[in-house]
Known about the structure:
Blueprint: E1 3-7, E2 10-12, E3 18-25, E4 32-39, E5 46-51, E6 57-59, E7 67-72, E8 77-82, E9 91-99, E10 105-107, E11 111-115
Parallel strand pairs: 2-11
Antiparallel strand pairs: 1-3, 3-8, 4-5, 4-9, 5-6, 7-8, 9-10, 9-11
Amino acid sequence: xxxxxxxxxxxxxxxxxxxxxxxxxxxxxxxxxxxxxxxxxxxxxxxxxxxxxxxxxxxxxxxxxxxxxxxxxxxxxxxxxxxxxxxxxxxxxxxxxxxxxxxxxxxxxxxxxxxxx
Length: 117
């Protein structure tokens, strides 16, 4: 059974940092593209960042220069380092894994990030 479990969310002040983790099981992690999405209340789900199986990364315009996506294929964990957080980064953050060879998608349950003073 495939599982993606996010952790690391919480309450942080503007300008602060958080690191989200996405622990995967039941899949061949090195063959999985990992993406982070976020969804704020009343808004559509937004792509934040993606890291390919080869390590190539892409970022949404709103987070470029502030967020860094990475992966540890030995531990089967994806990460999202978030720096210089702003109130508009407040959202539920979801991890998605896409299997390269089947294009099947698997989602985590989400973790809440709140940026507020």
